[in-house]
C-alpha cells in the first residue's frame, strides 16, 4: 500500500501553522465561528496572562498521578482542557458558548472513546453539573462507572486535582522547565503523556539502569590489555 506525501510550503504553510496555533490556544471557545483578528488577539493576550496550573487525575487521598492533563484531555462536559479557563485552581469553567460546566473535571477517554455509566448510557448523555442521566425514563441520578484504572482502582475512586506551581512543589512533584503556557496543564515532559503506572516503571528503570560506556580503542600500532576477570555486580534490570 503506497502513501502520498503532501508538502506544504511558502505562505500556505504559514497559514496552516497559524491555524494550528489558533486551535491550540482557542480550542472550541469560539463556538465554531472563527474569531476576528481583533478578537483572537484579545483572547490570546488573556491566555498569556493566565497562570500555569498543573492538573492531574489521582486516586482520592494520594499524590500518585494516574493521568496528567494536557490541552487535548477531555472534561466531563465533553470539551477539552484547552477550551477551559485557567485563571486559578478554583476558576476553570468551560469557555465554549452555552456550556454550563463550571470547572474542569477529567473523564478518562481519548479520541473517539466512550465511557458508559452503570445505567448503560454514555457520559455524554449526563448533565455537566449534576451528572444525572438526561435520557428519558432513566432514573440514574449520578454518573458512575466500573472503569478500571491501571492503578487498580475504579473511576469513582479518582479525583481531578488542579494546583499552582507552589502547591505542586510542596508535594515534591515536578513542574518542568518548559514554557509556562497555561494550556499545557499537567504536561511537564514527554513522560507526562503516558499512564501513571507506566511512568513509574520508566522512572524505576532509569534509576537502576547501568551507565553505558563506549568501548576504548587502542592507538594505532598498539594493543589493549586483556580485559579484567573482575565482574561488575548485577544491577536490577540489567542483562
From TrEMBL:
Compositional bias annotation for Low complexity: 207-216
Origin superkingdom: Eukaryota
Keyword ATP-binding among record annotations: no
InterPro entries: Fam221a/b
Record has Protease as a keyword: no
One Pfam family named in its UniProt record: FAM221
Region annotation (Disordered) ranges: 206-239
Keywords: Mitochondrion
Family label: Belongs to the FAM221 family.
Name of the protein: Protein FAM221A
Organism: Plasmodiophora brassicae (Clubroot disease agent)
